Amino acid sequence: AMAGGLEPHLAALRRELGGPAVLSVLVALIAVAVTFLLWRFVQGRKSSRKAVLLLGLCDAGKTLLFARLLSGRYRDTQTSITDSSAVYRLSQDKSTNVTLIDLPGHESLRLQFLERFKAAARAIVFVVDSVAFQREVKDVAEFLYQVLVDSTVLRNAPALLIACNKQDVTMAKSAKLIQQQLEKELNTLRVTRSAAPTSLDGSATGAPAQLGKKGKDFDFSQLPMKVEFVECSARGSKGEEGEADLEALQKWLVKVA
């Protein structure tokens, strides 16, 4: 009925414009304009998120990594009880930058600080202590799971880097092993979590937690965000006097900026 009612108007419009070909062009132009406006809207939302969050357990090396990225120099650090933020310039012409935010890793603080900054995250660097990893794997996976099932993180899908830190130490586990172990632990967590998930502010999402694809063992490729692993060392192989090994991390930051 609606189509029938519109037909006289379309016929009149065709006569005014000189035929159906012109009308088709007009419709195509409108479609292009709408697509462009939607693209601008999505890009605008993404560009408004300029923060790169540094997450991880206590003593993973987040604060030293934060300091090394900003100044290149070594400094003694202690357990953070609040966030630290600074503008990090990614190119010599200083036109490209992001805001690095180092969040506390203490169990009683990390989720409340993530809640505060998660909506602004363009990317997340999840720092892992590669030396203590075997001992801490369950705690690392638990925190990472809480990040990955959060509704805001899932919706915005910020790029995620697992930074396998402290590679200067002989006993450090490789990025490949860390990835395999994390996938295994996250798969176990997914199976054991039968209760409805909650967002970081404590509100239930009303649906069962579903990390990855149902019926398949979990792996990081199933997530809505792109996940990469790098090996790095905020301390560096020569300790306090030497340079940090952060080249892979710096290249990734340039890519996601």
From TrEMBL:
Q: Which GO terms describe its cellular component?
A: endoplasmic reticulum membrane
Which GO molecular function, any one, fits this protein according to its record? Answer: GTP binding
Q: Per UniProt, which keywords does this protein have?
A: Endoplasmic reticulum, GTP-binding, Membrane, Nucleotide-binding, Receptor, Transmembrane, Transmembrane helix
Topology within the bilayer: Single-pass membrane protein
Report the InterPro entries cross-referenced here: P-loop_NTPase, Small_GTPase_ARF, SRP_receptor_beta_su
Which range is the signal sequence, renumbered to this chain? Answer: none
Subcellular locations according to the entry: Endoplasmic reticulum membrane
Q: Give the transmembrane region(s).
A: 20-39
Task: State the source organism's domain of life.
Answer: Eukaryota
What's one Pfam family the UniProt record gives for this protein? SRPRB
Q: Which family does it belong to?
A: Belongs to the SRP receptor beta subunit family.
Q: What is the protein's given name?
A: Signal recognition particle receptor subunit beta
Native organism is Pheucticus melanocephalus
Q: By which gene is this protein encoded?
A: Srprb
